[in-house]
UniProtKB/TrEMBL annotation:
Annotated protein name in UniProt: EamA domain-containing protein
Keyword Chaperone: no
Organism, scientific name: Eutrema salsugineum
Keywords per UniProt: Membrane, Transmembrane, Transmembrane helix
Localization of this protein: Membrane
Amino acid sequence: MADVKLKKRGYIWAISAGINAALAAISAKFFSSLVIKYGLVVLCNVVMWGCYVNSLRALSSLQATVTNFAANFLSSGLAGLFLFQESLPFRWFAGALSITIGVVILSKSSVDKKVSSD
């Protein structure tokens, strides 16, 4: 049971890392003040790396990286659609669905359990 909670937390950290990476890109487009723009980009990237490192404590590097990438891809694409009125072709949605299915398959796969150094 504790292993399941640890993995769940790992996925939450990985998704948070991906969303923060997308927020860094969004903040670079949204703000005109260079100080605010770069400050938010740096802040979002620092938070993203902290979340990613925490996800690596609970997941394999493959699971953490792929989940991080998928969250970044999906949140960046949806932000473009809703915030910047960018058009997303059907292929983008097909690719997003394929990535999501791949992440689910990887999350269910049997990966060697991480050895705790506690």
